[in-house]
User: Fold this.
Amino acid sequence: MSENSGVAVLDPPVPEEAAPPVRRKGKRHKHNLAGYGFLAPWLIGLFAFTLIPMVYSLYLSLTKFNLLTAPQWIGFDNYVRLFSDERYLQSIKVTLLYVVTSVPLKLAAALLVAVALNRGLKALGFYRATFYLPSLLGASVAVSVMWRQIFSRDGLVNQFLGLFGIQGSDWIGDPRYALWTLVLLSGWQFGTPMLIFLAGLKQLPQDLYEAAAIDGAGRFTVFFKITLPLLSPMVFFNLVLETINAFQTFTPAYVISNGLGGPIDSTLLYTLYLYLKGFGSMQMGYASAMAWVLFAVIGLFTAIYFWSARKWVNYAD
Amino acid sequence: MRTEKKQVHWRAHAVLIVVLVAMIYPMVWLVGASFKPENQIFSTMNPFPFAFTIANYINGWTATGNSFTVYLANSLTVSLCTVVANVASCSVAAYAFARLDFAFKRFWFAVMLGTMMLPFQATLIPQYTIFYQLNWINTFLPLVVPYLLATDAFFIFLMVQFIRGIPRELDEAAALDGAGHVRVFFSIILPLLRPALLTTTILTFIWTFNDFLRQLVYLSDHSRYTAPLGLNAFVDRASGSSYGGMLAMSVVTLVPTVAVFIVSQRRLVEGVATTGIK
Assistant:
């Protein structure tokens, strides 16, 4: 398996360029003028739309600010208040529950379908494209509207359950179930990780499978002892990306709850609460503090993934 | 051996088709329901309307403050401007990272990768206040201008990966002929980069067209509403009454994305598979 086979995106991509063996060493002339010339738009954007706003947001998080009057310094008050804010704690609970259920569901579905597709089936292109479509449409208002109707009291799901004589609930209106409709929506959108898994599966060395077949290994043994370990870099990559995405989910929660996070805050995902605080009640200092906590939490999750990766991600080829 | 393999395939097809039908059923139902008379929408699972009507489309088109003609035109304007801005700015930055050697290159490259992981909420509020100071609220500028400056690092990364696959001999030959970096970029790299530019175009278009939060925050006037905002206005007021119109307009806002998908699905699937993304 070659190192830079397109999908091995986790390899730090730059280094091998710097020192091609053939070129004479020591006489590497730099093109600073051209380099920074071409880089200029990105650099300006980096400072104007990312770095400076982030510093500014850190400052705002230490102030009381409603956009109309000047920010008023209050130190760490916003952060302290966060942890006595019942709705905030509820939004953390809901979000964590959403992340730790939707991400594994999505990745498991993606992996299962990818393995099922990876057998040289006919019509692979058709399957791939159709399974991918939901994740492409995923974040839109229209799909969320559709989901809301499907899970409404007299929606498609309950009509289907009715065929078996089961009386379905009002899934969207019941605080016990509303969040799970969002988890299912996320699971429905397994197309992107599926494509990545599929690309990974194609790269796996066939000789291992032939050897396993000769040894008479069963299908499950092959999957858990060969496929999954070899695919672990892709599992890792998808896990990181999908976790970050899940923390940022906004549209479906907004649409199914009419922008309120209900019923009784059961779908109050973090970003939705941040929106309500920042743009609903114009508490922009408070919302900035929320943004920084989210940033820290995502950083923490990512750090844990990278730290644990040494134990389960198999980079040997 | 052969027949055994065929049987396995047959079973795999059966399972996959069941999953596939379950997955696309909601979408088929949505389209069918949008052509049903209001009182039949929830009466049956059958997606095909008994009494076909386009009343939902006619009523829905103008049911909220403004017509969907305006919303769709706004969405297309924003999406197309974003596409042009994104393709231009990202390809320039990608050329620098992939081909030019300059001081602190590795550092900037790491920063670029880091920004890919940054949650957009982190900059949402400060960006808003900056655009507010500039008097850009309720215009399309906050939605488009950041893309002029290559803020979506994902696409830079995608193009860097692609440029690395282009043989260096090509630019070296051009350089020997006296072509400068600008010439090399425009006459060698850009034409060969076409597949990556196409992937960028398609994904940028679809993601921008479907984007909601940023449009919700920046656009407040009905005349500036995009399709997702127009549809959302429906959701706000429809509680109870016109489901038909809401479903019909959902279909309408999905049409451009699905059309782009159908035309470009092969390119798109390959692009996603080989780069790994959202």
User: Anything to note?
Assistant: Chain A has one domain: 82-312. Chain A is about 65% helix and 0% strand.
